[in-house]
Amino acid sequence: MTIQTASRLGNVKEYYFSKKLREIDSLNKEGKNIINLGIGSPDLPPSPEVIKVLQDASALPNVHGYQGYKGIPEFRNAIANWYQKWYSVTVNADTEVLPLMGSKEGIMHICMTYLEKGDKVLVPNPGYPTYSSNINLTGAEILPYNLSDKNDWQPDFEAIEKEDLSNVKLMFVNYPQMPTGKNGSIELFEKLVAFAKKHSILLIHDNPYSFILNDHPISLLSIPGALDVAIELNSLSKSHNMAGWRLGMLIAHSDRINEILRFKSNMDSGMFKPLQLAAAKALELGKEWHEQVNEIYRSRRDKVYELLDLLDCTYSKDQVGMFMWAKIPSTYNNGIELADDVLYKANVFITPGSIFGSEGDKYIRISLCGDIQRFEDAIHRIESSTIINQMK
Ligand SMILES: Cc1ncc(COP(=O)(O)O)c(C=O)c1O
Q1: Are the beta carbons of 139 and 113 closer than 8 angstroms?
Q2: In sequence order, what are the residues at sequence separation of 6 or more whose Cβ sits closer than 8 angstroms to the Cβ of residue 86?
Q3: Cα distances (angstroms) measured from residue 339 to each of 28, 36, 160, 168, 322
Q4: CA 178 to centroid of ligand 1, rounded, Å
Q5: With contact defined as beta carbons under 8 Å apart, do 335 and 362 qualify?
Q6: Where is the Aminotransferase class I/classII large domain (predicted)?
Q7: In angstroms, what CA-CA distances link 53 with 58, 67, 182, 352, 389?
Protein backbone atom coordinates (compact mmCIF):
# COMPACT_ATOMS: atom_id res chain seq x y z
CA MET A 1 0.00 0.00 0.00
CA THR A 2 1.21 3.52 -0.62
CA ILE A 3 -0.08 6.32 1.53
CA GLN A 4 0.66 10.01 1.36
CA THR A 5 2.44 11.39 4.44
CA ALA A 6 1.18 14.69 5.85
CA SER A 7 2.71 17.75 4.25
CA ARG A 8 4.06 18.84 7.64
CA LEU A 9 6.67 16.09 7.27
CA GLY A 10 7.84 17.72 4.03
CA ASN A 11 10.89 19.42 5.48
CA VAL A 12 11.64 16.83 8.12
CA LYS A 13 14.34 14.42 7.11
CA GLU A 14 15.31 11.21 8.79
CA TYR A 15 17.55 12.00 11.79
CA TYR A 16 21.22 11.85 10.66
CA PHE A 17 22.12 9.28 13.30
CA SER A 18 19.29 6.96 12.34
CA LYS A 19 20.66 6.88 8.74
CA LYS A 20 24.30 6.63 9.79
CA LEU A 21 23.57 3.88 12.32
CA ARG A 22 22.09 1.81 9.49
CA GLU A 23 25.32 2.25 7.52
CA ILE A 24 27.38 1.32 10.60
CA ASP A 25 25.14 -1.72 11.03
CA SER A 26 25.85 -2.93 7.53
CA LEU A 27 29.61 -2.28 7.96
CA ASN A 28 29.42 -4.36 11.14
CA LYS A 29 27.67 -7.14 9.24
CA GLU A 30 30.70 -7.13 6.90
CA GLY A 31 32.78 -7.78 10.04
CA LYS A 32 34.19 -4.25 10.48
CA ASN A 33 33.33 -3.94 14.19
CA ILE A 34 33.05 -0.14 14.09
CA ILE A 35 33.91 1.75 17.28
CA ASN A 36 31.12 4.29 17.58
CA LEU A 37 32.31 7.53 19.21
CA GLY A 38 29.35 9.41 17.86
CA ILE A 39 26.31 9.00 20.03
CA GLY A 40 25.89 10.65 23.41
CA SER A 41 24.11 7.94 25.32
CA PRO A 42 25.59 7.62 28.84
CA ASP A 43 27.02 4.12 29.28
CA LEU A 44 27.50 4.38 33.06
CA PRO A 45 24.73 3.06 35.33
CA PRO A 46 22.54 5.17 37.63
CA SER A 47 23.23 5.04 41.37
CA PRO A 48 22.31 1.64 42.93
CA GLU A 49 20.09 3.49 45.45
CA VAL A 50 18.00 4.75 42.55
CA ILE A 51 17.63 1.32 41.01
CA LYS A 52 16.60 -0.07 44.41
CA VAL A 53 13.75 2.46 44.68
CA LEU A 54 12.51 1.43 41.24
CA GLN A 55 12.72 -2.27 42.13
CA ASP A 56 11.01 -1.93 45.50
CA ALA A 57 8.31 0.44 44.31
CA SER A 58 7.50 -1.72 41.26
CA ALA A 59 6.74 -4.65 43.56
CA LEU A 60 3.95 -2.71 45.28
CA PRO A 61 0.40 -3.48 44.16
CA ASN A 62 -0.93 0.07 44.04
CA VAL A 63 1.55 1.88 41.75
CA HIS A 64 0.50 0.58 38.35
CA GLY A 65 -2.35 2.86 37.44
CA TYR A 66 -2.36 6.07 35.42
CA GLN A 67 -0.60 8.95 37.10
CA GLY A 68 -1.56 12.62 37.12
CA TYR A 69 -0.60 14.82 34.15
CA LYS A 70 1.60 17.02 36.32
CA GLY A 71 3.61 14.14 37.81
CA ILE A 72 3.53 12.98 41.41
CA PRO A 73 4.16 15.52 44.21
CA GLU A 74 7.24 13.58 45.42
CA PHE A 75 8.97 14.10 42.05
CA ARG A 76 7.87 17.72 41.68
CA ASN A 77 9.08 18.50 45.22
CA ALA A 78 12.40 16.78 44.53
CA ILE A 79 12.80 18.91 41.39
CA ALA A 80 12.08 22.11 43.33
CA ASN A 81 14.58 21.11 46.06
CA TRP A 82 17.17 20.23 43.42
CA TYR A 83 16.78 23.64 41.77
CA GLN A 84 17.19 25.29 45.16
CA LYS A 85 20.19 23.23 46.22
CA TRP A 86 22.28 23.36 43.04
CA TYR A 87 21.10 26.44 41.18
CA SER A 88 19.84 28.61 44.09
CA VAL A 89 16.58 29.00 42.21
CA THR A 90 13.31 28.96 44.16
CA VAL A 91 10.38 27.47 42.28
CA ASN A 92 6.90 26.46 43.35
CA ALA A 93 6.72 22.66 43.09
CA ASP A 94 2.97 22.68 42.42
CA THR A 95 2.65 25.44 39.86
CA GLU A 96 6.05 26.02 38.20
CA VAL A 97 7.35 22.49 37.68
CA LEU A 98 6.27 20.01 35.00
CA PRO A 99 7.87 16.53 34.88
CA LEU A 100 8.60 15.30 31.35
CA MET A 101 9.68 12.14 29.61
CA GLY A 102 13.02 13.75 28.78
CA SER A 103 13.77 17.26 27.62
CA LYS A 104 13.46 16.22 23.95
CA GLU A 105 9.77 15.66 24.59
CA GLY A 106 9.52 19.14 26.13
CA ILE A 107 10.90 20.75 22.97
CA MET A 108 8.02 19.24 21.00
CA HIS A 109 5.41 20.30 23.57
CA ILE A 110 6.70 23.86 23.52
CA CYS A 111 6.73 24.02 19.72
CA MET A 112 3.22 22.60 19.46
CA THR A 113 1.91 24.93 22.15
CA TYR A 114 3.26 28.20 20.78
CA LEU A 115 4.16 27.95 17.10
CA GLU A 116 2.35 28.09 13.81
CA LYS A 117 2.83 29.37 10.27
CA GLY A 118 3.94 32.99 10.29
CA ASP A 119 5.94 32.69 13.52
CA LYS A 120 9.72 32.79 13.58
CA VAL A 121 12.12 31.12 15.98
CA LEU A 122 15.77 31.92 16.72
CA VAL A 123 17.82 28.73 16.71
CA PRO A 124 21.54 28.26 17.40
CA ASN A 125 23.81 27.26 14.51
CA PRO A 126 25.43 24.90 15.42
CA GLY A 127 22.89 23.41 17.81
CA TYR A 128 20.79 20.38 18.73
CA PRO A 129 18.98 19.36 15.49
CA THR A 130 15.72 18.59 17.31
CA TYR A 131 14.96 22.32 17.74
CA SER A 132 14.76 22.80 13.97
CA SER A 133 12.98 19.56 13.15
CA ASN A 134 10.27 20.25 15.73
CA ILE A 135 9.85 23.85 14.54
CA ASN A 136 9.49 22.54 10.98
CA LEU A 137 6.62 20.32 12.07
CA THR A 138 4.66 23.40 13.17
CA GLY A 139 5.10 25.37 9.95
CA ALA A 140 6.95 28.19 11.74
CA GLU A 141 10.12 29.64 10.25
CA ILE A 142 13.63 29.03 11.56
CA LEU A 143 15.89 32.04 11.96
CA PRO A 144 19.35 30.63 12.68
CA TYR A 145 21.76 32.69 14.77
CA ASN A 146 25.41 31.87 14.27
CA LEU A 147 27.73 30.78 17.03
CA SER A 148 31.39 30.88 16.12
CA ASP A 149 34.82 30.55 17.59
CA LYS A 150 35.28 34.30 17.00
CA ASN A 151 32.36 35.05 19.30
CA ASP A 152 33.42 32.42 21.81
CA TRP A 153 30.31 30.43 20.78
CA GLN A 154 27.94 33.05 22.20
CA PRO A 155 25.12 34.80 20.35
CA ASP A 156 26.13 38.00 18.59
CA PHE A 157 23.22 40.15 19.78
CA GLU A 158 24.12 43.05 17.48
CA ALA A 159 24.01 40.79 14.43
CA ILE A 160 20.71 39.25 15.56
CA GLU A 161 19.17 42.71 16.04
CA LYS A 162 19.93 43.55 12.42
CA GLU A 163 17.32 40.91 11.42
CA ASP A 164 13.60 41.64 11.34
CA LEU A 165 12.58 40.29 14.74
CA SER A 166 8.94 41.34 14.58
CA ASN A 167 7.46 37.84 14.26
CA VAL A 168 10.03 36.09 16.43
CA LYS A 169 8.18 34.27 19.19
CA LEU A 170 10.76 31.91 20.67
CA MET A 171 14.53 31.67 20.98
CA PHE A 172 16.25 28.38 21.76
CA VAL A 173 19.43 28.60 23.82
CA ASN A 174 21.50 25.85 25.35
CA TYR A 175 24.46 26.36 27.72
CA PRO A 176 26.51 24.26 28.37
CA GLN A 177 26.17 24.28 24.61
CA MET A 178 25.93 21.14 22.54
CA PRO A 179 27.92 20.55 20.34
CA THR A 180 30.50 23.28 21.07
CA GLY A 181 31.00 22.55 24.79
CA LYS A 182 30.82 26.26 25.62
CA ASN A 183 29.73 26.80 29.21
CA GLY A 184 27.09 29.31 30.26
CA SER A 185 27.80 32.28 32.51
CA ILE A 186 25.70 34.62 34.59
CA GLU A 187 26.79 37.47 32.35
CA LEU A 188 25.57 35.68 29.22
CA PHE A 189 22.30 34.70 30.88
CA GLU A 190 21.71 38.32 31.95
CA LYS A 191 22.20 39.46 28.36
CA LEU A 192 19.81 36.79 27.10
CA VAL A 193 17.09 37.75 29.58
CA ALA A 194 17.49 41.46 28.73
CA PHE A 195 17.33 40.63 24.99
CA ALA A 196 14.19 38.52 25.47
CA LYS A 197 12.50 41.29 27.47
CA LYS A 198 13.43 43.96 24.95
CA HIS A 199 11.98 42.00 22.02
CA SER A 200 9.16 40.13 23.84
CA ILE A 201 10.60 36.77 22.92
CA LEU A 202 10.09 33.63 25.00
CA LEU A 203 13.50 32.09 25.75
CA ILE A 204 13.73 28.32 25.86
CA HIS A 205 16.85 27.38 27.76
CA ASP A 206 17.81 23.72 27.32
CA ASN A 207 20.08 22.77 30.22
CA PRO A 208 20.75 19.01 30.21
CA TYR A 209 24.56 19.17 30.48
CA SER A 210 25.16 21.43 33.48
CA PHE A 211 26.50 18.64 35.71
CA ILE A 212 28.93 17.06 33.26
CA LEU A 213 32.57 18.12 33.66
CA ASN A 214 31.29 21.31 35.22
CA ASP A 215 31.94 22.21 38.86
CA HIS A 216 29.42 25.05 39.02
CA PRO A 217 26.08 24.19 37.41
CA ILE A 218 24.01 27.30 36.71
CA SER A 219 20.46 27.91 35.59
CA LEU A 220 19.20 30.74 33.40
CA LEU A 221 16.35 31.03 35.88
CA SER A 222 18.79 32.35 38.50
CA ILE A 223 18.65 35.72 36.72
CA PRO A 224 16.05 37.95 38.47
CA GLY A 225 12.87 38.20 36.39
CA ALA A 226 13.87 35.30 34.11
CA LEU A 227 10.69 33.36 34.84
CA ASP A 228 8.71 36.14 33.09
CA VAL A 229 10.47 35.51 29.78
CA ALA A 230 12.01 32.05 29.96
CA ILE A 231 11.30 28.36 30.22
CA GLU A 232 14.07 26.00 31.30
CA LEU A 233 14.25 22.37 30.25
CA ASN A 234 16.34 19.99 32.30
CA SER A 235 16.93 16.28 32.37
CA LEU A 236 18.21 13.31 34.35
CA SER A 237 19.51 11.66 31.17
CA LYS A 238 23.08 12.88 31.47
CA SER A 239 23.37 14.18 35.04
CA HIS A 240 22.17 10.88 36.53
CA ASN A 241 22.94 8.38 33.74
CA MET A 242 19.25 7.73 33.16
CA ALA A 243 18.82 8.53 29.45
CA GLY A 244 16.75 5.42 28.74
CA TRP A 245 14.45 6.01 31.70
CA ARG A 246 13.09 9.15 30.00
CA LEU A 247 12.98 11.61 32.86
CA GLY A 248 13.13 15.33 32.44
CA MET A 249 11.46 18.51 33.57
CA LEU A 250 10.25 21.88 32.48
CA ILE A 251 10.42 24.87 34.82
CA ALA A 252 8.33 27.88 33.91
CA HIS A 253 5.87 30.52 35.03
CA SER A 254 2.58 28.86 36.07
CA ASP A 255 0.81 30.40 33.06
CA ARG A 256 3.30 28.71 30.72
CA ILE A 257 2.88 25.37 32.52
CA ASN A 258 -0.90 25.55 32.08
CA GLU A 259 -0.57 26.51 28.41
CA ILE A 260 1.81 23.63 27.72
CA LEU A 261 -0.43 21.20 29.61
CA ARG A 262 -3.25 22.00 27.18
CA PHE A 263 -1.14 20.25 24.55
CA LYS A 264 0.77 17.72 26.64
CA SER A 265 -2.24 16.31 28.51
CA ASN A 266 -3.76 15.40 25.15
CA MET A 267 -0.62 13.65 24.02
CA ASP A 268 0.54 11.50 26.94
CA SER A 269 -0.26 10.55 30.52
CA GLY A 270 1.80 10.66 33.72
CA MET A 271 4.91 8.51 33.98
CA PHE A 272 5.06 5.17 35.84
CA LYS A 273 5.02 6.05 39.54
CA PRO A 274 8.09 3.93 40.53
CA LEU A 275 10.11 5.75 37.84
CA GLN A 276 9.11 9.09 39.33
CA LEU A 277 9.95 7.90 42.86
CA ALA A 278 13.35 6.68 41.66
CA ALA A 279 13.92 10.01 39.89
CA ALA A 280 13.14 11.84 43.14
CA LYS A 281 15.81 9.68 44.82
CA ALA A 282 18.32 10.47 42.08
CA LEU A 283 17.82 14.20 42.54
CA GLU A 284 18.80 13.83 46.20
CA LEU A 285 22.26 12.50 45.30
CA GLY A 286 25.12 14.64 46.57
CA LYS A 287 28.36 16.07 45.25
CA GLU A 288 30.18 12.70 45.59
CA TRP A 289 27.91 11.17 42.96
CA HIS A 290 28.66 13.85 40.38
CA GLU A 291 32.36 13.80 41.34
CA GLN A 292 32.78 10.11 40.64
CA VAL A 293 30.94 10.32 37.31
CA ASN A 294 33.05 13.31 36.28
CA GLU A 295 36.25 11.56 37.31
CA ILE A 296 35.48 8.90 34.70
CA TYR A 297 34.58 11.47 32.04
CA ARG A 298 37.84 13.32 32.77
CA SER A 299 39.98 10.25 32.14
CA ARG A 300 38.11 9.57 28.90
CA ARG A 301 38.54 13.18 27.86
CA ASP A 302 42.31 12.83 28.24
CA LYS A 303 42.18 9.96 25.75
CA VAL A 304 40.05 12.02 23.38
CA TYR A 305 42.68 14.79 23.51
CA GLU A 306 45.22 12.17 22.35
CA LEU A 307 42.93 11.03 19.57
CA LEU A 308 42.27 14.59 18.38
CA ASP A 309 46.01 15.38 18.46
CA LEU A 310 46.62 12.35 16.23
CA LEU A 311 44.10 13.75 13.74
CA ASP A 312 45.74 17.20 13.89
CA CYS A 313 42.52 18.75 15.17
CA THR A 314 42.51 21.84 17.38
CA TYR A 315 40.22 22.31 20.38
CA SER A 316 39.61 24.22 23.58
CA LYS A 317 40.26 22.50 26.89
CA ASP A 318 37.62 24.66 28.60
CA GLN A 319 34.74 22.64 27.21
CA VAL A 320 32.06 21.18 29.47
CA GLY A 321 29.37 18.57 28.79
CA MET A 322 29.59 15.12 27.37
CA PHE A 323 31.37 15.79 24.08
CA MET A 324 34.56 17.24 22.65
CA TRP A 325 34.21 19.71 19.79
CA ALA A 326 37.27 20.14 17.60
CA LYS A 327 38.32 22.01 14.47
CA ILE A 328 39.55 19.87 11.59
CA PRO A 329 42.99 20.40 10.02
CA SER A 330 43.14 22.35 6.75
CA THR A 331 44.03 19.13 4.89
CA TYR A 332 40.31 18.29 4.93
CA ASN A 333 37.56 20.33 3.27
CA ASN A 334 35.01 19.62 5.95
CA GLY A 335 34.12 17.46 8.94
CA ILE A 336 32.20 14.95 6.81
CA GLU A 337 35.34 14.25 4.79
CA LEU A 338 37.38 13.66 7.95
CA ALA A 339 34.65 11.59 9.63
CA ASP A 340 34.24 9.40 6.52
CA ASP A 341 38.01 8.95 6.26
CA VAL A 342 38.17 7.82 9.89
CA LEU A 343 35.13 5.57 9.40
CA TYR A 344 36.32 3.83 6.24
CA LYS A 345 40.06 3.69 6.98
CA ALA A 346 40.09 3.13 10.75
CA ASN A 347 36.61 1.70 11.45
CA VAL A 348 35.89 4.45 13.98
CA PHE A 349 32.77 6.61 13.80
CA ILE A 350 32.94 10.25 14.85
CA THR A 351 30.29 12.87 14.21
CA PRO A 352 30.80 15.56 11.55
CA GLY A 353 29.96 19.01 12.93
CA SER A 354 27.78 20.03 9.98
CA ILE A 355 24.89 17.90 11.21
CA PHE A 356 24.46 20.56 13.91
CA GLY A 357 24.31 23.36 11.33
CA SER A 358 26.43 25.00 8.64
CA GLU A 359 28.67 26.74 11.22
CA GLY A 360 29.83 23.27 12.28
CA ASP A 361 31.14 22.47 8.80
CA LYS A 362 34.83 22.54 9.74
CA TYR A 363 34.36 20.67 13.02
CA ILE A 364 33.87 17.20 14.42
CA ARG A 365 32.31 16.05 17.68
CA ILE A 366 33.44 13.11 19.78
CA SER A 367 31.26 11.64 22.50
CA LEU A 368 32.74 10.81 25.90
CA CYS A 369 30.33 7.91 26.33
CA GLY A 370 32.11 4.59 26.26
CA ASP A 371 34.61 2.55 28.15
CA ILE A 372 38.18 3.93 28.21
CA GLN A 373 39.37 0.83 26.36
CA ARG A 374 37.26 1.86 23.38
CA PHE A 375 39.09 5.17 23.16
CA GLU A 376 42.43 3.36 23.40
CA ASP A 377 41.37 0.94 20.67
CA ALA A 378 40.19 3.84 18.51
CA ILE A 379 43.57 5.58 18.95
CA HIS A 380 45.36 2.38 18.04
CA ARG A 381 43.24 1.89 14.92
CA ILE A 382 43.82 5.46 13.77
CA GLU A 383 47.58 5.18 14.46
CA SER A 384 47.84 2.07 12.37
CA SER A 385 45.63 3.34 9.53
CA THR A 386 46.66 5.14 6.35
CA ILE A 387 45.10 8.36 7.74
CA ILE A 388 48.26 9.05 9.70
CA ASN A 389 50.59 8.62 6.70
CA GLN A 390 48.34 10.94 4.77
CA MET A 391 48.77 13.61 7.43
CA LYS A 392 52.55 13.47 7.51
C1 LIG B 1 21.13 19.76 23.73
C2 LIG B 1 20.25 18.61 24.04
N3 LIG B 1 19.02 18.85 24.50
C4 LIG B 1 18.18 17.83 24.80
C5 LIG B 1 18.56 16.52 24.62
C6 LIG B 1 17.56 15.45 24.95
O7 LIG B 1 17.76 14.90 26.17
P8 LIG B 1 16.66 14.05 26.92
O9 LIG B 1 17.23 12.69 27.08
O10 LIG B 1 16.42 14.75 28.21
O11 LIG B 1 15.41 14.04 26.08
C12 LIG B 1 19.83 16.22 24.14
C13 LIG B 1 20.21 14.81 23.95
O14 LIG B 1 21.06 14.42 23.26
C15 LIG B 1 20.70 17.30 23.85
O16 LIG B 1 21.93 17.07 23.37
Answers
A1: no
A2: 217
A3: 17, 11, 32, 35, 19
A4: 9
A5: yes
A6: 33-382
A7: 8, 17, 35, 39, 53
Ligand 1 atom closest to the CA of 247, numbered from 1: 10
Prediction pTM value: 0.96
Residue 208 CA to ligand 1 centre (angstroms): 6
Ligand 1 center–CA 48 separation, angstroms: 23
All structural domains of the chain, each given as residue ranges with its CATH number in brackets, are 12-41+288-391 (3.90.1150.10), 48-284 (3.40.640.10)
* 35-36 and 348-349 beta bridge pairing: parallel
For the CA atoms of 286, 287, 292, 297, the dihedral, rounded to the nearest 10 degrees, stands at: 120
179 prior amide bond cis, ω within 30:
yes
Contact 334, 22 (CB under 8 A): no
- Which atom of ligand 1 lies closest to the CA of 235? 10
Enumerate residues 6+ apart whose C-beta is below 8 A from 310: 379, 382, 383, 388
pLDDT in tens, 166-189: 999 999 999 999 999 999 999 999
Cβ contact 352:335 at 8 Å: yes
Nearest partner of 75 among 290, 283, 285, judged by Cα: 283
Residue 222 has a CB neighbour count (10 Å cut-off) of 16
Q: Residues lining ligand 1, judged by CB closer than 6 Å?
A: 40, 102-104, 128, 174, 178, 206, 208, 235, 237, 243, 248
Residue-wise pLDDT for 277-328, tens only, equals: 999 999 999 999 999 999 999 999 999 999 999 999 999 999 999 999 999 9
The number of the ligand 1 atom at minimal distance from the alpha carbon of 105 is 11
Which of 270, 287, 275, 273 shows the shortest CA–CA distance to 211? 287
Half-sphere exposure of 389 (CA within 13 A, CB side): 5
